[in-house]
Every structure is written in C-alpha cells, then in structure tokens.
Write a structure and sequence with these properties.
Elements (H helix, E strand, L loop, with lengths): L1 H12 L2 H8 L16 H17 L18 H13 L3 H14 L3 H15 L10 H17 L3 H14 L3 H13 L3 H14 L3 H26 L7 H9 L3 H12 L6 H13 L3 H12 L5 H21 L11 H11 L3 H14 L3 H13 L3 H13 L4 H23 L7 H14 L3 H14 L3 H13 L3 H11 L6 H17 L3 H11 L6 H17 L3 H6 L10 H13 L3 H10 L1 H4 L7 H17 L2 E12 L4 E12 L4 E13 L14 E13 L5 E11 L6 E9 L5 E11 L3 H5 L3 E14 L2 E12 L4 E14 L4 E12 L11 E15 L3 E16 L2 E2 L3 E15 L2 E10 L13 E11 L1
Antiparallel strand pairs: 1-2, 1-17, 2-3, 3-4, 4-5, 5-6, 6-7, 7-8, 8-9, 9-10, 10-11, 11-12, 12-13, 13-14, 13-15, 15-16, 16-17
Helix pairs in contact: 3-4, 4-5, 5-6, 7-8, 7-9, 7-17, 8-9, 9-10, 9-11, 10-11, 12-13, 12-14, 13-14, 14-15, 14-16, 15-16, 17-18, 17-19, 18-19, 19-20, 19-21, 20-21, 22-23, 22-24, 23-24, 24-25, 25-26, 26-27, 26-28, 27-28, 28-30, 30-31, 30-33, 31-33
Length: 917
C-alpha cells in the first residue's frame, strides 16, 4: 500500500519529462547557476519554497512547486529530489539522486554533505526489505583488508574483485592495488594506484595514491635491476606482460627453451614460478622459487624468493582443507558467512541462534561451530562440529566436520596443558636480571647472578653476566664470561650474539686485531641484515683503529647500502684515515638521515663529531691560517716568524695555496764567535705559491715556490714532495728543498742548502712501525753532507695511547764550516715515550719525553758522548665548527741542524688558527 501511494505521489510531483532529462544528463554544468538567467529570482524562490515541505516532512503532494524547475537540473534540484525519496523511505531512488547530486557538487562542503547522506541512506530499508548490499560491500572491503594485513594478496583480490565492476571507488582501487602488491605484482598495483589517484577528492587521498605510485615505481626499478642483472636470452618484458595478463601458458611457452638448459638463470626461475602461480599450480611455482633461492646473491633477490616461497607454502596449506560446497541461498546465512569470514563470530551467532532452534542440518551446525571457535569457545565449537558430523551426507562434509573436531580437541588439550605452570625460580631470577640490565643497573643484576654462576651456570647465565660486567665498565671480566658462553651456544644465532660481544670487549680494551678476528668469525654463520652490518662495522672499525684504514675501507662491499649508524661511522673513519676525505664527506651527506639520529653524547656520537671537523678541515673550499713561530737557544739566537696561509680546495685531486712569511733573526754579537761576528739582526720576507695534485688514491705530488728577500740578498727558494702509499703496510716519500741555512753567520754569507730525502715507512707487524731515511745536503759553499735517520715505534698501550720510540740519526760533513754547525761526524741516539690521546670529544693532544746521547766528531776526532734530553707537547682541535687551533712546544738539548754549543739548549713553539671561510 505504501509503495503504491509513493508512485502516485511522485507522478504528481515529478513528470516523466524530468526523469528523461535527468537520465540524459551526464556532466555537471560549469557553474551552479540555473539555465535562463532572466528567471533566476523565480527559480531561487521556488527552491526555497520547495525546501520547506521537504525539511518539515510534509505530504509529498506539496512538492508540486518543483514543476517550473523540470528542465533546469543542477545540484540543488537533485538534492531535493533525493531528500523527497528519503522522506518516503525509498532508499534506492534516494541513493540514485544523491549520487547524481554528487556529480554536480562543486564545493568541499557540498561533497561532504552528499557523501554523509549516501552513507546514511545505504543503511535504510529498500522498498520495505533489508538492504543487505551495503553490508556485504562493507564486509568484502573488511575481508580484503584483513587478508592484506595477513599478507594474503590473492585472497584479498578475490574478495574485492566483485566491487571493481559493481561499485568501484577510491577505496576499492587502493585495496586492489595493495592486493596486487602483496602478490608481488607491482606493475598492476601501480595501475590501480593511478586509477585511485583519478578518483581522489581530498589532499589525504591524493597523498595516499601518490605514495603508492612512488613505492611501486621504486619496487619496479629494484625488481627489474635484480632480474635483468644476469644475462639471458629471455624477453623479460614480454614474459612479464603475459604474466600481468594472467596468461601463464604463453609466459611458459616463452620460458620453456631456457628451462631445459643445464644452468637456468635466476630471473628465468622467478618468471617460471610466477607463470605457474598464474596457472594455479602452487606446487610447481614453489619448486621454481626454491631453485631460485639457491642463486639469490643479493638482498633484493632473497626478498623476492622468500616472499614467493612463503606465499606458495601458504597456498598449498590452505588447499588441504576444502570448505567448498553448495552455496547457502538463505540471505541470513550468507550474511552470517560474511561475519565469519571477517572474524565477527559474535555477530554471526546473533543471526544463527534463532535458526538453530528451527533448522538442523550440516551447514548451520558447521557455521555455529566456526562462530564459537572465533569467540574462543572451543568446547561449544566441538559440540557443534559433532552435530555437524552426525548430519554429514558426503565424504567432504564428513572430512570437514572431522577436521573441526580434531582441531577443537587439540585446542582443548593445549588449554589443559597451558594452564601454565608457574615459572621456575631460575627463570624468575633471569627475568629480573634482564629487567635490571634494561634499566642499566648491571651491579644489581650481578648480585642475582653470582649465586647462579656457582650453582647453575649455563649459556643464558654467562651471557647475562657478561652484559652486566660490561654495564659496570669491566670489559675484561665481561670478555671472560662471553668466552665461557661461546662453547655453550647451540644455535648459529647464539654464536653470532656471543661473537659480537667478544669483539666489542676486545675493541673496548684496545685489542683491535683480536676484535677484528672475532668479528670476521661471524661471517661463517647465517645472519640477518642488522647482525651483518654490526659485524662488518666492528671489523672495519677494528682495522681502522689498528692503523689499517685502507684495508678496513676496502673490506666494505662497494655496492653495499649501509643500514646501521655503526657501519656509517666506521666507513667514514676508515676512509678519512686513509686520507680520502672526499669519500668520507660523501658518505656523511648520503647517510645524513641515519647520522642525525645518533645521540651526541654516545660513543658513536663522539666519533662522528670528531670526524666531521677533520673532514671540514681537509675539504673546505677556502681556508686562511695565520700563525706564529718562536725559537730561542742557549746562545740567545732567536727566530721570530709570523706567517699567513691561504688554501683553496678545488677537489680531492687539486688543491692550491699561497701566503707570505715574515721572519726576524736576532743574536747579540757577544754570543757569536769573535772570528766570524756578522749581524745582530736580519729580517726576511717571503711570498710563496704551492699546488698539490693527487692523480690517484695512492699518489700525491706537491710543490711550492718561494721568492724571498733577505734584505740585500734575494734567493729563490722552493720545495717539492712525492708520496706513494699503496697499502697500510708500506709507503714512500721523496722530498726536495732549496732553503737558506738559518744560522745568522751563514745568512750573512748568503749560504743556501739543497736537500734531497728518501723515506720508506713500513708496518710489518701489529702496532709496530719502522721508518728509514737517507738524505743528502749540498751547501752553496761547496760543503756536502750525507745523513740517515732510522726509527722504530711500538704501541705499548692502545687504551692509553702510549708509544715507545727508538731512533738514531747521523751525518758526515765534507768539512767543518765556521758559519754553521757542520762537524765531520754526528750521531744521536734517542729513546722517547709519547702519550697521545683524544680529550673530550674533538680535541687531541700529545706529551712526550726522551733521553739520549750524542757524539760530535771534529777534525776526525770523536768527542766523548754527551747526554741529551727532550720533552714536548701539542694540542689541536676545533674551537668552533669553523675555527681550528694548532699549537706545540719543544725543548731539547740536542744539537740542531745548523747551530750548536757545548751546553746547547733549544726551545721552540708555534700557534696557528685555521679559519674555514
């Protein structure tokens, strides 16, 4: 009766011509103004009159006022028609006109209004019957989302596919894209993300769609790179096209010739697996994925194979239990099934309980059993599975019910067993120990562990003890317990964890080569990506700190992507200490997102801070360095030198410098030998230009020219240097100088010296360095000097930075000159202790002291040996990010190159500031 009344009412209100006009309207007008501008005021009045009966829900007969608007359709007309149908409880027609109004909506408010109306109407009765379609659509979307969360792309696609033709919208396209992504099909996923983008109406929806497109693009790039990385005759593009078109047969036809070869490439195996999956042959697909797994030699390839293997195994497992059978035609049972599929057992039971009183059959008992299982009621589920078995008529039904009974019995048995017994006293203590360790309370953890070490020592106890001692800054004790734990480690994962601890403790104590061996041992076991990065970082850092930075950096695979801050810092340090600051700088830029997350006060934070200022010092485009040097000896001979240096860093290959030097030499005449008294003061001014070239990573060439003015004398001075460092174990240095002899009598005589030095540096053993130098000096007064220098340095304590140095130098002169120190023979032996460490975060200092003896031979008569002693200190580091300080001081009683006395004492110091501009 209500339905007839509705038809009659609408026939009066809306003539058929209006329906025809609306039906032929496919696109909204460009403006919201009604056609016929001359009647705009009447139209608005009619609309306002029409709104009143609609909003007050008066009799539909009152809607006759809409007649003048029959041929003037727009947003408001469709909205009013939809509201009229909604008042008359005709949700299907209301939904039609609300959707048409949505096509004409132009503002965000209009769009949101219509969308809220549509959602409301979807839940209303359709012509007196329950409107189940929105519920089913919502259920399909929820089911698809659930499968996506469970990484079941194929199941999600099966659930959402009907909506692609029935009611496609933004959400449906997004879910479809995600399903294809789960199925490892990024190209099709990208198509649906693009479709979703076309329907996106808000900034959030646009962002979601674009994010998906970007991810799929990156995936496709990496995927293609992994697949095309090997050479084969297969047309990858064509095969992928067939697979994307669900045409597995044609894809296999393309692949078949290659599959018969003795050695099948990785990408062919993957494509074969995907083709068999398209043909619903998961067993064959699994076999090809497993074959491909053996050839996976990169992380992306391993991800491809692991994902495929997991999906095929899940597919095969699900295929073992068939839940097929004739579809239940009862709409209520269909809705119950939807609830069960979405894990809403409680709602399913609300529908099933009334039916259980009136119906008794296999289907309804099975649905009840499933519902009770979903709400964690295995005993009730078991009873209904038993009832279902009693009504089973086919072998499949009997199998389904029997499987259900078996599962519920197992469930109940487990529940009986897992009325979990109380934790053992040992486990309670160990859990408390772990809690203390997590709170950095290693001392409290040790109090609980000490009795266990005597009573019940095992792997867990030893590992927790080691961690506790490490927290209390006792690395030696921690190392002992890590070593005790290693023989008890029964799994590869446990051995990796233990070796990481051993390596860390060795490094902490400065035993860098032992640490490197422990970290290298880890690569014998399977590791995850983080364990691999930590082991590699430990190995690299250990070698770098053991003065093997070149070997350290070269041990990093060149195409490796760093994923941990430990590996980033290790790579920066090893490249920087190899004198490859440009690489260090590039790594710091590439991995800035990782670096900024490192806590500044942590050990890693201090390491990276210390490296940054050194990188800046080496690679900053422009730097100026003013400095001052002063020396004085026991003969009151003083040298006061001010200088200013400018450097420009063009690249790692080219660097330039320029500057000037102003030097004042003074010595009282009374301190000079009476026979050669010359000048008491001399001032020199020098301008210099220099260039450094690095044609390779191993070779460095540098040179400087320095035109000078020594008052009435203008020598042209120069220097050059060649350094070759092929490895950490050996390096060569050749130097040449042309300089003024800096003794005041020699300067007054305009004497210069041309020197050539040949150096070799060896590092044959851990913590041992050997240096040898041969040199020749040719003086402008025809004197000639041949000399040598040998030193052996050993690191006594890596923790303290304490070194011991033994060195000897000597030379022979052609003749004894009265103008500078030039005995026939000179030999100096020295033993030096040097302490060099980092202070705070970024400052470095050294202090050294030594004892020795020297022999001076004049006129071929050796003098008695005289004892010498010396000490010195140095400091450098950044005052600010762009101002760097360097200073040193030296005191010695050794003879200098060109000056000497019987009770000679020499002091010198310098300070300079480098400004990065």
């Amino acid at each position: 009766m209500g339905y007839c009344r509705l038809i009659g009412a609408l026939s009066v209100v809306i003539p058929m011509t209006l329906f025809a006009t609306i039906a032929n309207t496919s696109a909204p007008p460009k403006t919201s103004t009604l056609p016929g501008s001359q009647n705009n005021s009447d139209n608005k009045q009619s609309l306002n009159i029409t709104k009143n009966p609609v909003e007050s829900k008066k009799n539909p007969q009152d809607l006759e006022v809409i007649k003048p608007l029959v041929n003037k359709v727009n947003y408001e007309v469709f909205l009013l028609i939809a509201q009229s149908y909604e008042i008359l409880n005709n949700s299907s027609e209301a939904l039609v006109f609300y959707n048409r109004a949505l096509n004409y909506a132009q503002t965000n408010d209009e769009i949101e209004t219509i969308r809220s109306k549509i959602e409301k109407v979807k839940q209303l009765p359709v012509n007196g019957t329950l409107n189940e379609e929105p519920i089913i659509q919502s259920a399909r979307i929820n089911i698809a989302k659930k499968y996506i969360d469970e990484n079941k792309g194929q199941e999600a696609l099966n659930a959402i596919k009907p909506l692609l033709t029935q009611s496609p919208n933004f959400e449906v396209f997004i879910i479809t894209a995600q399903a294809y992504a789960e199925m490892d099909n990024p190209s099709v996923a990208m198509e649906y993300f693009n479709k979703a983008l076309l329907l996106a109406r808000s900034d959030v929806e646009i962002q979601i769609a674009k994010s998906g497109i970007d991810k799929m693009s990156k995936w496709l790039s990496e995927y293609n790179k992994a697949l095309i990385g090997e050479q084969s005759d297969v047309d990858v593009t064509l095969v992928k096209k067939y697979i994307n078109e669900n045409n597995g047969i044609k894809a296999l036809e393309e692949l078949r010739p290659l599959l018969s070869k003795p050695q099948v490439p990785f990408e062919v195996l993957i494509l074969a697996a995907q083709a068999h999956a398209e043909l619903n042959e998961p067993a064959l697909a699994l076999s090809y994925y497993e074959k491909a797994e053996l050839l996976a030699d990169s992380e992306i390839k391993r991800q491809i194979t692991n994902s495929g293997i997991q999906k095929m195994k899940t597919w095969l497992a699900q295929a073992k239990v068939s839940t097929s059978g004739p579809q239940i035609q009862d709409p209520k049972l269909d809705l119950a099934i939807k609830y069960i599929d979405t894990n809403q057992g409680k709602k399913a039971l609300e529908i099933l309980k009334p039916l259980l009183k009136s119906q008794q059959n296999f289907k309804i008992f099975r649905l009840a059993a499933q519902s009770y299982a979903e709400i964690n009621e295995p005993s009730l589920s078991l009873s209904y599975y038993k009832k279902a078995l009693s009504f089973a008529k086919t072998a499949d039904e009997q199998k389904i019910a029997s499987e259900g009974i078996k599962k519920m019995n197992n469930w109940l048995a487990k529940e009986r067993k897992t009325a979990k017994p109380a934790l053992s006293p040992l486990q309670i203590k160990l859990n408390l120990v772990r809690e203390y360790i997590s709170k950095d309370q290693g001392d409290k953890a040790l109090e609980l562990l000490q009795p266990l070490l005597l009573d019940k020592p095992n792997y867990q106890v030893f590992m927790l003890t080691a961690l506790s001692y490490a927290q209390t800054n006792k690395p030696r004790l921690a190392l002992n317990y890590y070593r005790n734990a290693l023989p008890l480690a029964t799994t590869p994962k446990d051995r990796v964890a233990t070796l990481l601890g051993i390596g860390k403790m060795h490094f902490w104590m400065g035993q860098y080569f032992r640490a490197e061996r422990a970290y290298a041992e880890i690569f014998k076991y399977p590791t995850n990506s983080r364990e691999f990065d930590l082991a590699l970082a430990g190995k690299v850092k250990s070698l770098a700190y053991a003065d093997r930075p070149i070997r350290a950096f070269k041990s990093i695979p060149p195409d490796l992507i760093y994923e941990t801050p430990e590996l980033v810092v290790a790579a920066i340090q090893s490249s920087l200490w190899s004198d490859w600051a440009d690489i260090s700088k590039q790594i710091s830029l590439d991995y800035e997102p990782i670096i900024v997350k490192i806590p500044p006060e942590s050990a890693l934070g201090k390491d990276i801070s210390d490296a940054f200022w050194q990188i800046n010092q080496a690679t900053w485009p422009n730097a100026i360095t003013p400095g001052y040097f002063y020396s004085i000896d026991s003969d009151d001979y003083q040298i006061s030198r001010g200088y200013f240096n400018y450097t420009h860093y063009w690249s790692q290959i080219f660097q330039s410098e320029a500057g000037f030097i102003d030097t004042v030499y003074t010595q009282p005449l009374s301190k000079q030998p009476a026979s050669i008294q010359s000048l008491s003061k001399l001032v020199s001014k020098t301008v210099y230009f220099g260039e450094t070239i690095r044609p390779t990573r191993q070779l460095i060439l540098s040179g400087r020219i320095a035109p000078s003015d020594y008052e009435l004398w203008r020598p042209f001075l120069w220097s050059s240097q060649l350094t070759y460092r092929p490895s950490d174990y050996v390096s060569f240095l050749v130097q040449g100088f042309h300089e003024a002899v800096e003794a005041l009598p020699a300067l007054s005589q305009h004497i210069t010296a041309t020197q050539v030095h040949g150096n070799i540096n060896l590092a044959p053993l851990p913590y041992v360095k050997v240096r040898g130098v041969l040199n020749n000096i040719r003086f402008s007064d025809t004197n000639n000097r041949d000399g040598y220098f040998v030193s052996v340095t050993t690191l006594l304590s890596t923790e303290l930075g304490l070194s011991f140095i033994l060195q000897e130098k000597g030379f022979r002169s052609k003749f004894v000159s009265p103008y500078y120190f030039s005995p026939n023979k000179y030999v100096l032996d020295t033993a030096i202790l040097r302490l060099g460490r980092r202070y705070a975060t970024r400052w470095h200092y050294y202090i050294d002291g030594g004892l020795g003896r020297q022999f001076v031979g004049v006129d071929n008569v050796d003098s008695r040996p005289s004892r010498t002693w010396q000490w010195g200190l140095g400091l450098n580091g950044p005052i600010t990010d762009r101002v760097i300080l360097n200073l040193y001081y030296l005191m010695t009683t050794q003879a200098a190159n060109f000056t000497n006395s019987s009770v000679y004492k020499y002091q010198a110091g310098a300070v300079e500031l480098k400004f990065l501009i």
